[in-house]
From TrEMBL:
Signal peptide: none annotated. Pfam families: DUF4502 (PF14950), DUF4503 (PF14951). InterPro entries: DNA_repair-scaffolding (IPR053054), DUF4502 (IPR028026), DUF4503 (IPR028032). Residues 184-197 have a biased composition (Polar residues). This is SPIDR protein. Residues 1-111 form the DUF4502 domain.
Length: 651
C-alpha cells in the first residue's frame, strides 16, 4: 500500500474519470467546446496501427472560425506533417478515417525526435471528431456500417533491440510483417475458403498479445508446442448416479471443453480453450495425436490473464513442465548458443485464450516429429510418490484400481461429490511395512472422466494411467487438467521406476492402530455381539440389481422387476447384519462391522431362507472366528473408542 503501483492506479483511475466526464459534457452540449485556446486542429491523411497504438499521419489546419466547415479549412503549408498517437480506447471512440478533421484539446504534448522530421503528438485523450456539413454527416452514417481496413505494423522484439540473429532477420522484412486488418464481419464460408489469408508466423505468445491486443488476432499465427491435452467441465456439465450394473458415474450428459496447454519458443505458457466435445472419449485420441506436436494458433482472443495466486491448479501443471528441457529464447538478448535452460524464473502469469467463431483456429501438423521442447509425463511408482516432499505437485503413475466409492455427503449434490479410487501397484505390494499397500485417490467433480473409463471400472478392476494428478498433504487428488487413460501414452519417461504389473493376489493392510478413516483394510477377529435391530434381508433382481421388486400381476407367486420389465425367477437375496468383533490388533477398541451377504437361489429356496432367518438364533454366531474380510473404514473415534467398518467386495 502506498507504493508506486497503487499511486499509478489512482492516477489512471482519475485520468479515465476525467476523460469520461469530458466526453459526457461534449455529448450533453452537442457541440464543440467553445474554448479554443491551445486546441490543435488536424486533418487525417493516413492511419495505421503499431504496438496497439493507432498512428495518424496528419496535417495541421489553421485556427478556423466556428462556422467554417472542415472541407473549407486552409492547409498551412509551413506547418510540418504531424504524427498523432491515439490509444486503443480513444481510437475506438473517434472511429477516424482519412480526411476526417480532429480537434485535440489540451493537455496534448509535442515530442521532437532526433533524426526525425515529423513531430509526434501525444496525450490525445481529449479529442473530438468534427462533423459540420451535411455531406460529412451522410458520409459518417454510410461508413459507420462498415469496418475500415487498417494496416498493422508488426514490430518484432528482435527488430526493436537490433539483434543480429540471421534467422530472425529472415522474418523481419517489412513486407512480411505488414498485414491488413481483416474486417470484423465475415461469414464462416469465407474463412474456410481462404486459409492462406493468415500469413505472418510468430514464435512469441507475449509479442502477439502485445501487438494484436486483447480483442484477438486473425491476421497472424503464433507457433507453439502442445504440452498437454485435457478437458475442462462446462458450467452445465453434470454427473449422474445409477444403480445396479450400470456405470456408477456417467459423463454422457456432461458438457466439456477441449483445452490445450501450449508453450512458445520463449518458454511462455498459454491455455487454449477450443470447442466443446460431444463425447469425453475423444480426449484420449487427441492426446495421442497432438501432444508433443507443433501447431500454429490463429483466430484467438484473450479470455483472461491469470496469475499464480488465482489459478493454483493451472500453475501446478506449468511448474511440473518447468524448467524447459531445451534452451529457450530470452527476450531482449541475442538468440545464440547461450540461450538459457537453468536458473530461469518460473512463469508468474498465463493468458487463457479462446477461439473466435468462424476462424482458422488450430493447425496441427500430425505428421511432424515430436518437438524437442515437449516434456512427456514423468511416470513414478506409488511408493516413490508417497515419499515425495512438498505440496501441490503434479505426478503421473500407472496403478490397479481395486475399489471405487462415491462419497455420500447428502448436503452436497450428486454432481459435485467426490469419488474415491483405491489403487495399488507393485511398488506398494512389495513393501514390508511403513507404507500402505493401498492408496486412496480422490477424484473431484472438476476432473472430467470419460465414459470409457467409467464403464471399464464398472465392469471390473482395471489398470489405469493417472496423468498429472496432484500430490500434497499426504493425498493424491485428481483435479482439473488431470487425465485418466486406460492406455499408457506413447511417450512417457519412467525415470527408473518399477512399473511391472501385479502377478499375485492383492494384499490389503490389516486393521491396526495406524488405520485411518476412509480407507480400506483387511479384518480378522471373533464375533462378540450382533445388533439384531438392524439386521434385515431383501430380494434383488439378478440382472440389474434393482431392490424394489414387485409381485407379478399375472402370477402372484413370482416377482417382477420394473426396470427390466421381466419376471425374476432366480432373485439374489441380500442380507445385512451388524456384528461386533474382538480384534487383537485393536484390543482397546469396539469394532463394529456391517456385513453383507448375497445368496442366489430360486424363489422356493428364497422363501424358505426368509422363514429361517425369522427364527435364526443369534447365539449360534457368537464366538465364531471371522477370516480376512475386505472392509471400508467409515469412521474411527476415540471417545468412545470405536471403529466402524463395512464389508466390501473388491473389483
Amino acid at each position: 500500500r502506498g507504493g508506486l503501483a497503487e499511486r499509478l492506479c489512482r492516477l489512471q483511475n482519475r485520468e479515465r474519470s476525467a476523460i469520461s466526464f469530458w466526453r459526457h459534457q461534449c455529448l450533453s452540449n452537442d457541440k464543440i467546446p467553445s474554448d479554443k485556446s491551445g486546441v490543435l486542429i488536424v486533418r487525417i491523411l493516413e492511419i495505421f496501427e503499431e504496438c496497439t497504438i493507432q498512428v495518424a499521419i496528419c496535417q495541421q489546419l489553421e485556427q478556423s472560425p466556428a462556422t467554417l466547415s472542415p472541407e473549407d479549412a486552409v492547409i498551412n503549408a509551413e506547418e510540418p506533417i504531424l504524427k498523432v498517437l491515439f490509444t486503443r480506447e480513444t481510437a475506438a471512440h473517434l472511429k477516424s478515417r482519412p480526411q476526417d478533421v480532429i480537434h485535440i484539446y489540451p493537455p496534448w504534448q509535442k515530442l521532437l525526435l532526433q533524426n526525425a522530421g515529423v513531430p509526434v503528438i501525444m496525450n490525445t485523450y481529449f479529442s473530438q471528431k468534427v462533423l459540420r456539413s451535411e455531406h460529412s454527416e451522410a458520409r459518417e452514417k454510410t461508413y459507420g456500417l462498415t469496418k475500415m481496413l487498417i494496416r498493422k505494423n508488426i514490430i518484432s522484439l528482435a527488430q526493436t533491440f537490433r539483434l543480429d540473429d540471421v534467422d530472425d532477420k529472415l522474418h523481419q522484412e517489412s513486407s512480411d510483417n505488414q498485414v491488413p486488418c481483416a474486417p470484423q464481419t465475415h461469414n464462416n464460408g469465407d474463412s474456410k475458403q481462404h486459409p492462406s489469408a493468415v500469413s505472418a508466423v510468430n514464435d512469441s505468445l507475449l509479442e502477439m498479445v502485445e501487438s494484436q491486443g486483447a480483442v484477438g488476432w486473425r491476421e497472424v499465427q503464433v507457433q507453439v508446442v502442445i504440452q498437454r491435452v485435457y478437458c475442462l467441465p462446462a458450467r452445465e456439465g453434470h454427473r449422474s448416479h445409477t444403480q445396479g450394473n450400470k456405470p456408477l458415474l456417467s459423463n454422457g450428459g456432461m458438457s466439456c471443453r477441449l483445452c490445450l496447454l501450449v508453450q512458445d519458443a520463449y518458454g511462455m505458457f498459454s491455455e487454449v480453450q477450443l470447442q466443446s466435445l460431444s463425447s469425453t472419449d475423444d480426449v484420449e485420441q487427441y492426446c495421442r495425436r497432438w501432444e508433443g506436436k507443433s501447431c500454429c494458433l490463429a483466430g484467438m482472443k484473450i479470455l483472461q490473464r491469470t496469475t499464480r495466486g488465482r489459478a493454483l491448479g493451472l500453475f501446478s501443471l506449468i511448474d511440473s513442465l518447468w524448467p524447459p528441457v531445451v534452451p529457450v529464447k530470452v527476450p531482449g538478448q541475442s538468440q545464440d548458443s547461450e540461450m538459457m535452460t537453468t536458473n530461469l524464473p518460473p512463469p508468474s502469469f498465463c493468458y487463457i485464450l479462446t477461439v473466435q467463431s468462424g476462424e482458422i483456429h488450430v493447425e496441427v501438423d500430425e505428421e511432424e516429429q515430436i518437438s524437442n521442447l515437449y516434456q512427456p509425463p514423468a511416470v513414478h511408482g506409488l511408493k516413490e510418490i508417497l515419499r515425495t516432499d512438498g505440496c501441490n505437485k503434479r505426478c503421473s503413475f500407472w496403478a490397479q484400481v481395486l475399489y471405487l466409492r462415491l462419497q455420500t455427503k447428502h448436503s452436497v449434490p450428486i454432481d459435485q461429490r467426490e469419488m474415491l479410487l483405491f489403487v495399488t501397484d507393485s511398488t506398494l505390494q512389495n513393501v514390508v511395512h511403513g507404507i500402505p499397500k493401498v492408496v486412496a485417490v480422490s477424484v473431484t467433480a472438476s476432473c472430467v472422466l470419460s465414459m470409457e473409463i467409467m464403464e471399464a471400472l464398472s465392469a471390473g478392476s482395471q489398470l489405469v494411467f493417472f496423468k498429472d494428478a496432484l500430490w500434497g498433504n499426504g493425498r493424491i487428488i485428481c483435479v482439473e487438467r488431470t487425465v485418466l487413460l486406460l492406455q499408457k501414452p506413447l511417450l512417457c519417461s519412467a525415470a527408473g521406476a518399477d512399473l511391472s504389473e501385479l502377478t499375485g493376489p492383492v494384499r490389503l493392510d490389516e486393521l491396526d492402530s495406524t488405520t485411518q478413516a476412509s480407507s480400506i483394510c483387511a479384518l480378522r477377529g471373533t464375533v462378540v455381539g450382533v445388533n439384531e435391530s438392524t439386521a434385515f434381508s431383501w430380494p434383488t433382481c439378478n440382472r440389474c440389481g434393482n431392490a424394489k421388486l414387485e409381485v407379478c400381476p399375472q402370477d402372484r407367486e413370482l416377482l417382477y422387476c420394473n426396470q427390466c420389465s421381466e419376471v425374476v425367477t432366480t432373485p439374489v437375496l441380500k442380507m445385512q447384519l451388524e456384528v461386533f468383533l474382538s480384534c487383537p490388533s485393536r484390543s482397546q477398541s469396539t469394532v463394529k462391522v456391517k456385513v453383507w451377504h448375497e445368496i442366489r437361489a430360486t424363489l422356493f429356496v428364497l422363501l424358505t431362507m426368509l422363514l429361517f432367518l425369522q427364527t435364526y438364533e443369534v447365539q449360534s454366531v457368537l464366538g465364531k472366528e471371522v477370516g480376512l474380510l475386505n472392509c471400508y473404514v467409515h469412521s474411527i473415534t476415540s471417545h468412545p473408542n470405536c471403529v466402524v467398518l463395512e464389508e466390501i467386495v473388491l473389483l
